[in-house]
Amino acid sequence: MNHVLELSGLTKTYAGGFTALKGVDLAIEQGEIFALLGPNGAGKTTLIGAVCGLVRPTSGTIRAFGEDMAHNWRSLRARIGLVPQELSTDMFEPVGRAVRHSRGLFGFAPDPARIDDILKSLSLWDKRDEQIRHLSGGMKRRVLIAKAMAHDPELLFLDEPTAGVDVELRRDMWKQIAAMRERGTTIILTTHYIEEAEEMADRVGIIRQGEIVMVDEKAQMMKRLGRTEALITLAAPLDAVPDPLSRFSVTLADDGRTLCYRGGDGAGQGKAEVAELTKALTRAGIDYTAIDLHESSLEDIFVDLVQNGAQGKAA
Asked: Per-residue b/e over 222-232, b at no fewer than 16 CB within 10 Å?
C-alpha cells in the first residue's frame, strides 16, 4: 500500500504542560480524501501544524512520500499545501499577486497560465486585481485555497475550509476539492460539517483528547457502528413484550404505548428487521398507528465515539 503520509508515535506537549497529541499513529493513502473529525481542542490543528512545520513535535516521526521529514523537510514541505483555519494573509495585497507569491515561496518558477486557471476555477478571476480586504468571508476562504493550490501540492491539508461560508459557496468549493482529487491530489480535511465528510471522504478518522480513537473506511464504519432505531406507536398499550416479538431487540416505553426497536448494523439489516417486526405484529393481532424510523448517520457515530470513546480501531 502506497502511503503519502505516515505518523508514528507523534506527541506534542506545550510549555504549560498541556499534551495536545498523545502518541498518534496514522497512515494516509495516496489519492484518498481523508476526513479527520473531532471536537474543538481534540488536536486536529496541532496535528496539521506538526506536518506543515508550524508546530514542533515533542516526539515521534513524520514520513511524507516515503521520506523522514526531519531529514529532508524543505523539499518535502514544497509538496504539501495547507489551507489554514484562520484567514492569515496580507489583506492589502491584490488577489492575483497573493496567489502568484505563494507559488514563489516554495521555489517554483512563475507559471501565469496555471495561476489564471486556479483563479478561474475558484471564481476569483474577476477579483484578481482587488485587495483581499474588500472580499467577503467566503471569497477570502477561496483565496486561501488558491494560495494552497498555487504550487500544485501532492498532499493538501484543509483545516475547516468551509467555515463561515454560505451553502452555495460551500457546494462550489467542494466541487473544486473533488476536482483536485481527480487530478491525483491526496486531501486531508477537518470539518465541523459532518455531512460533508459523509459525502466526500473515503476514510474517516476520529480524534479525541489528542488520541485517534478510530480510523476506518466510511462505509465500514457505518456498517460496524451504525444502528437502526424504530418507535412503533401502538393502538392499545401492552403490559409486556409478547412472546412472538421476543426474538427482536425491542422494549416497551411510554406506559406500554410505544414499542422501541434498536438493532441492525448500519447497512440495511435494521430496516429488514423492522419490516419483519411489523409483520410479526400483524400476525399477533397487535395494531399500531405510526412508525418513526431512524438510521444512524456519521454524525451519530461521531457523537457517540467522542462522548464514549471506542472499543478499538480499524486500519
From this structure: bbebbbbbbbb
115-123 contacts: CB < 8 A, separation 24 or more? 115/150, 118/146, 118/149, 118/150, 119/95, 119/146, 121/176, 121/179, 122/146, 122/173, 122/176, 123/172
pLDDT exceeds cutoff 60 at 310: no
Q: Which of 194, 222, 250 is the last residue of a domain?
A: 222
Q: What residue numbers bound the domain in which 181 lies? A: 3-222
Nearest to 221 by CA among 178, 182, 265, 260: 265
In contact, 95 and 107? CB cutoff 8 Å: no
The pLDDT of residue 134: 92
**pLDDT 10s digits, 109-155:** 999 999 999 999 888 999 999 999 999 888 888 898 899 989 989 99
Residues 10 and 88 in one domain: yes
Res. 311: pLDDT tops 60: no
Question: With contact defined as beta carbons under 8 Å apart, do 6 and 76 qualify?
Answer: no
How many CB atoms neighbour CB 37 within 10 A? 25
